Amino acid sequence: MIRKATMKDVKPIQKLLNTMPKRLILPRSLNELYGYLRIIMFNFLTERKEPHGACALHLCWEDLAEIKSLAVDELMPRQGIGTQLVEACLSEAITLGLYKYSP
């Protein structure tokens, strides 16, 4: 299940991001994650209550957004979680009226 994050999800998402190798992803402060709260999408395992993937849509300008902090738990490889998260962020961008991207 992919959904937008809520206040109670921010600390577990930060924990997931902090488990990623530093060469692959920049660390994010709680302050920064709370700022992105309504545009963070994540997927989680119900029985574990921890996210196993997350990413955020950063609004850069009136017609430009960037996907940030895409992370998937290393215990969940090759299940399409990253793809689903990116697609959810792209859908959110379209909902917001953002159509410009930079590959």
Strand content: 25-35%
- Radius of gyration, rounded? 13 Å
Q: Please identify the structural class as seen in this structure.
A: alpha+beta
The overall strand count is: 4
Outline the low-pLDDT stretches: none
Write down the overall mean pLDDT: 81
Oligomer: single chain
Silhouette: globular
Termini Cα gap: 26 Å
Helix and strand pattern: EHHEEEH
Biggest sheet, open or closed, and with what strands and sense?
Answer: 4 strands, antiparallel
| Helical segment count | 3
Helix proportion range: 25-40%
Strand order of the largest sheet: 1-2-3-4
Task: Write structural notes for this entry.
By secondary structure, the chain is an alpha+beta fold. Helix content is 30%, strand content 29%. The chain contains 3 helices and 4 strands; from the N terminus they run E-H-H-E-E-E-H. The relative contact order is 0.19.
Keywords:
3 helices; 4 strands; 29% strand; globular
List the topology elements.
Blueprint: E1 2-4, H1 10-19, H2 30-35, E2 40-45, E3 50-61, E4 64-72, H3 81-95
Antiparallel strand pairs: 1-2, 2-3, 3-4
Summed up, what is this model?
By secondary structure, this protein is an alpha+beta fold. It has helices spanning 10-19, 30-35, 81-95; strands at residues 2-4, 40-45, 50-61, 64-72. It has a four-stranded antiparallel β-sheet.
